[in-house]
Design brief:
Belongs to the binding-protein-dependent transport system permease family. The chain is mostly helical. It has 11 helices and no strands.
Length: about 240
């Protein structure tokens, strides 16, 4: 109980919500009457593939976004490159401000339909939270700490790796969590451009007027988003230096 009290409330409370929603959905699924189309779409063999495709799409987009946004954020906080900061953030903000569906559709004119186009659209849409948090996290590091590290003989690279980044980790990972949740929700729209995701259940439910299939898709997306957010919180907590936790 003492260890539980030491943990932030969201670390142990969020999984309780996830379990409650999952149990509620399973009970509802067992007692409700489904049509043949709903049964086929929600059969575990089909549902497993759909969920797997949704997770794959989200993770691939996340890896690419992290690989772009964090290094770019580091570069933009270096003294010689600070003048590029407003330009880069404003460009990233365009992707965030644009309607997700419109962004995906626009990319289909360039790249066609399918998984690759969905990944590109999601990457553009999710760059801003990680980029902005990387910049904010590094900027909030006390400059006296940086100067002390340089004073004991550390190079600028070692200071960045051993001092600045560890201190900025909580803020950066918070941006990654935000991007992940955005990507999980936005990935449902990829079904409009031919990429399989849980959005397929939602659009099928709307098109064929199958409310139970629509509800199932929405609940599963919500559960996936909550689960990924919770796992991201655990990673954030584990990666945060003890003095900052």
């Amino acid at each position: 109980m003492r260890r539980l009290r030491r943990l932030p409330m969201d670390v142990w409370f969020e999984p309780l919500i996830i379990v409650a929603l999952l149990v509620g959905y399973i009970v509802w699924y067992q007692v409700t009457t489904l049509t043949e189309v709903e049964q086929a779409a929600l059969a575990w063999d089909n549902l497993r593939v759909t969920i797997g495709d949704h997770i794959t799409l989200t993770l691939v987009a996340t890896v690419i976004v992290v690989a772009i946004a964090i290094p770019l954020g580091i570069v933009l906080t270096r003294p010689s490159m600070k003048w590029l900061n407003p330009i880069a953030v404003n460009i990233a903000n365009i992707g965030q401000a644009a309607p997700a569906v419109g962004l995906l559709v626009l990319f289909t004119f360039w790249l066609g339909t399918g998984f690759r186009t969905a990944v590109v659209g999601l990457v553009v849409y999710a760059v801003l939270p990680i980029l902005q948090n990387t910049i904010v996290g590094l900027r909030q590091v006390d400059q006296r700490t940086v100067e002390a590290a340089r004073g004991i003989g550390l190079s600028s690279v070692r200071t960045l790796v051993q001092v600045e980044l560890p201190l900025a980790v909580p803020v950066i990972l918070n941006g990654v969590r935000t991007a992940l949740v955005i990507l999980v929700g936005t990935a449902t729209l990829s079904t409009f451009i031919g990429a399989t995701s849980l959005g397929t259940l939602i659009t099928t439910g709307v098109t064929l007027f199958l409310p139970k299939l629509l509800i199932s898709g929405a609940v599963l997306v919500g559960l996936l988003a909550l689960t990924i957010d919770w796992l991201g919180r655990l990673v954030e907590l584990a990666a945060t230096p003890r003095g900052l936790a």
